[in-house]
Protein: Ribulose-phosphate 3-epimerase
Amino acid sequence: MNPYQIAPSILSADFARLGEEVDNVLAAGADVVHFDVMDNHYVPNLTIGPMVCEALRKHGVTAPIDVHLMVSPVDDLIRMFIDAGASNITFHPEATNHIDRSLQLIRDGGCNAGLVFNPATTLHYMDHVMDKLDMILLMSVNPGFGGQSFIPGTLDKLREARKRIDASGRNIRLEVDGGVKTSNIREIAEAGADMFVAGSAIFNTDDYKATIDQMRAELELARKSLGQ
Ligand SMILES: O=C(CO)[C@@H](O)[C@H](O)COP(=O)(O)O
Structure:
């Protein structure tokens, strides 16, 4: 398994040419398509839903689609995204009354399940559901918009999350999202992340491949400094 995954956030893609943008970023070496779902209720913005996910599958996208639900409640959309071809589905623990049930719903649908932690959300939400987690996503910005700056306190939170994952002995991805760029991806990896969402840092450049290659070079330095 690729120890590090790069997941461009299509929030920063050109929506008028979405299929082409996704094809281009995958051809440039991205591992996963990060798909941000916002409802103008849980977060103050409105984006795309299961029909767009299904359209990407029909367009021919076979790469994993990593659906980040910034919605409340979550269960109806979980069911719809399972049917639409999602691979991973993550949600915010405070957006559902029944965290365990929502995680189980995702796993029963054959998708990888994960919890998302806002910058000020405690990691304790994961304590009693570790056995149902395939991934954990730490937001390094407040959710709702692309192009924000990485919140430095996320590095300590990543180290803490990494300790908990390692102590669990389970194979859980540690994803980070918000303000990830070529200039900081190495220290983010060194803090314990192994999956990197980047929107503006990739889609706002002219050469997606050059940017992703540069990110991989930085990740290789992190891998070496971690002795892996
Ligand atoms: O979920 C979100 C924002 O809520 C992110 O996925 C952003 O889309 C990341 O954008 P950049 O900070 O990388 O530009």
Summary: The chain has one domain: 5-225. The two ends are 13 Å apart (CA to CA). The chain is about 35% helix and 20% strand. The first strand starts at residue 5 and ends at 8.
